[in-house]
Amino acid sequence: MSLFGASVLVLLGFIYHSTAGFMERQTEETINAEVRGLTEQYGQQGLSGLVRAIESRVARDKNGGGLYLLTDWKFTPLAGNLKEWPNIEAVRDGWADTELREADGTRLSARLKYFLLPGNHHLLVGRDVAERNTVEGLIMDALVWGLVITVALGGLGAVLMTRGMLGRLDVINRASREIMRGDLTRRIPAKGTGDEFDQLTGNLNDMLDRISVLMDGVRHVSDNIAHDLRGPLNRIRARLELALPENGEHSANRQVLARTIADIDEVLGAFHAILTISQAEAGSRREEFAVLDLATLAEDLVELYEPLAEDKGLRLRVDLTPGLTVSGNRHLLSQALANLVDNAIKYTPAGGEVGVELAPGADGPELTVRDTGPGVPPEHRDMVLERFHRLESSRNAPGSGLGLSLVAAVAKLHGATLTLADAQPGLRVTLAFPGVEAAASQA
Ligand SMILES: Nc1ncnc2c1ncn2[C@@H]1O[C@H](COP(=O)(O)OP(=O)(O)OP(=O)(O)O)[C@@H](O)[C@H]1O
Ligand SMILES: [Mg+2]
After folding, report:
1. Which residues are CB-neighbours of 269 under 8 A, at least 6 positions away?
2. How far is the CA of 374 from the centre of ligand 1 (A)?
3. Which of 5, 19, 68, 213 holds its CA 20 to 30 A away from the CA of 408?
4. Is the shortest distance between the CB of 276 and ligand 1 below 6 Å?
5. In sequence order, which residues have a C-beta less than 8 Å from that of residue 373 and are 6 or more positions away?
6. What is the predicted pLDDT for the residue at 425?
7. Ligand 1 pocket, residue 338 CB under 6 Å
8. pLDDT tens across 241-278, in order?
9. How does the average pLDDT of the chain come out, rounded?
10. Residues contacting residue 427 through CB under 8 Å, at least 6 positions apart
């Protein structure tokens, strides 16, 4: 901004300097021409010729601004339109500037050239420069105003431009933050002007498209692996079961085989989870939606997990409000709730408590599973929803990090909001279903 102001100042200064200089040179040239004429007259016709020439010029040039004065050696005027010899202080190269009074008494500023003629006659030829000074003043005023207006407009422009730029950067930043929070389908809005910001936006969006395609590719590959390996694994499992010796419960052979079957079951479980998550995310299970009573669904599940909780020395507290329904996929919702209860039981140390609650929420029913275990630190609550993400502290527990991913996918499929919160102590996971109208528009 100050650089801009300085360059405008330099430019206007240059304009002033050249115009003023030009006008000054013009005055001097006019005077020089007059002097040449008069000197000629003097050379040809002597003093009387000079007097006549001066008088005719004065007569001709009534308002033209020409100033003449010829005096004898005592400075007594002989000819010209100046009443008396002016008070000239500094004469440089024959030039002098002075304020003087004309024959009719008006005051004026003059630029004069002074000559000493043979016979000690003094000659002054000059011009009234009042007009020039006025014009110079006007130019100066115009330039100063020009400077003020240019700088003001420039400043305003700079402020508006900066604000516009920051505004657009803010749009990009906000969209990027939302995308980073996990909504990869979102795109940064462009303004449509085709400027650099739109190009940046376009590039970022293209990049996101590319990332989406790559991620879909990765997902596709893992789905394919899960899908294709299920067949051979099932066959291996079947053969191992056949190979299990009928009797001899505790033989070493039998134990090895049984443990291998259990491991294969775990891998099959993970593959099943991967495929279910993909299906839920793709929305292909929406056709199987039906109106479900959530309390019944939860009750069945709790019954299934009660023995497990008891074995681990956990209290299971159930509080279900009856009559709350949602439109959904029974199998997927049961699986999601099972994963939450499974986590609560798995990660809560003996002596703790696991709670399953169903209550009407702000929009639709809210299903909550809470425990008194170690909980999930706030900064990890988004990440544990991603596939295969497990906290460092639970690496020793069995599992593959797919449980909560499935819950998240099922929540999304049902238009429900999944929230992980601090149960002080422990984790509190809530599935908040949409209201009836929202659910209807969703389906
Ligand atoms: N109730 C909980 N208390 C404390 N930590 C939890 C709880 N639920 C989940 N977590 C943490 O979140 C991680 C992800 O959970 P998720 O259910 O997705 O996977 P997992 O339980 O490790 O494996 P899987 O569910 O596939 O058997 C867990 O590894 C654990 O670190
Ligand atoms: Mg789990």
Report:
1. 400
2. 11
3. 213
4. no
5. 344, 347, 348, 349, 352, 425, 426, 427
6. 92
7. no
8. 998 877 666 778 888 899 999 999 999 999 999 999 99
9. 88
10. 343, 344, 347, 370, 371, 373, 375, 376, 420, 421
What pLDDT, on the 0 to 100 scale, is given for residue 290?
Answer: 92
CA trace torsion 335, 340, 346, 351 (10° rounding):
-130
Which residue's CA is the nearest one to ligand 1's atom 13? Answer: 390
Ligand nearest to the CA of 384: 1
Q: What is the DSSP letter of 379?
A: G
Range 205-231 average pLDDT: 91
Q: Is 313:277 a contact under the CB 8 Å cutoff?
A: no
Count the alpha carbons within 13 Å of 395 in the hemisphere toward its beta carbon. 2
**Domains in the chain: ranges and CATH:** 2-135 (3.30.450.20), 196-279 (1.10.287), 285-442 (3.30.565.10)
Verify whether ligand 1 is closer than 6 Å to residue 400 (CB atom): yes
Answer yes or no: is the C-beta of 442 below 6 A from any ligand 1 atom.
no
The answer, yes or no, to whether any atom of ligand 1 lies below 6 A from the CB of 336, is no
* Residue pair 360/325 in contact by the 8 Å Cβ criterion: no
375-396 pLDDT, tens digit per residue, is 999 999 989 998 899 999 988 8
Place of tokens 């803010």: 170
* Substitution site in 404, 406, 418, 419 for ligand 1 pocket (most atoms within 8 Å of beta carbon): 404
